[in-house]
């Protein structure tokens, strides 16, 4: 549809150019007496080539016929009459029309080849990107998904095998191992599904005013292993709500906090401040940081910068965090932490004036209704796995 509209617009612009360019050129050349007929015909030919290149073959054909009539009427004796008195002038005019049409067809064909080459290059780039994604996905499925599944299966088979006389503590340990492996497998599958929905545009955030002060504690609860290392900076009074999907924003912050906890041993600080018409949420660590050259790469799917083992997950945590943030109209960017480390900055549009009805703003309203959780369930644990 869009391509058809573009072709229609180009066709009408071409016909307008074919109708306007020859008369304007005739008016200019008629004021010049130093040029002979051959020079004038060549100038018309150059104009026709330009029309063919920019507007297509139909416009060039119309312009060629229109130019031939104007050349005959204004420049070939007898002037101001559509009649030619010399055989040489007839030959010159016929040759002009033939050459003009031939050149226009060559230019049109060359333009088509150029457009096809550009389109083919774009399709090749898309196929290459899809192939890289497919390869990374196959790698993930071959190890990252199979490993927790195999661990859970081994634990369950041991529990079911009558040959093993297991104590209560052994059974509890095996059940814990199976539960942990299945939980990790569930998180990996959720990450894959969410990334697929993000890339296909199927994920539709439910945007409404959300109190960030209530979302931050829930996000910290989603990363239980790092709770003792997390410090929430005092928040100023009067921080406005943000326009966001509360469940998705919680997921974003949990991913960022979990990623910082996984790759650093330092304390982690979370701060919230009003900035202009928006609200800025900072997740600050004091670890090794990320080189500037690699900062955008860590936001690509299946990137696990600097992993030292194969248990780091799919490398989707930061990619999902940025994708979810941008889907809600926000921005996620990395910055240096003063004194060393990495700061992840989430900037969300403010919702000042929408205080009434803010999700989580009152007692007993921390959990959104199930009907509003259309796209993403509230995460139970961190989804940040192996991004740097």
Short description:
This protein is 55% helix and 10% strand.
Walk me through what this model shows.
With about 400 residues, this protein is α+β, with helices and mostly antiparallel strands. It has two domains: about 1-125, no CATH class; about 210-370, 2-Layer Sandwich (Heat Shock Protein 90), CATH 3.30.565.10. Helix content is about 55%, strand content about 10%. The protein contains eight helices and seven strands, in the order αααααβαββαββαββ. It has helices at about 1-30, 35-55, 55-75, 85-160, 170-200, 210-220, 245-265, 315-325, and strands at about 210, 230, 240-245, 270-275, 280-285, 330-335, 340-350. The strands form two sheets. The chain has a five-stranded mixed β-sheet with strand order 2-4-5-7-6. α5 crosses α8 and α6 crosses α7. It is elongated. It starts with a helix and ends in a 39-residue tail after the last strand. Mean pLDDT is about 75; it is low at about 305-310 and about 355-385.
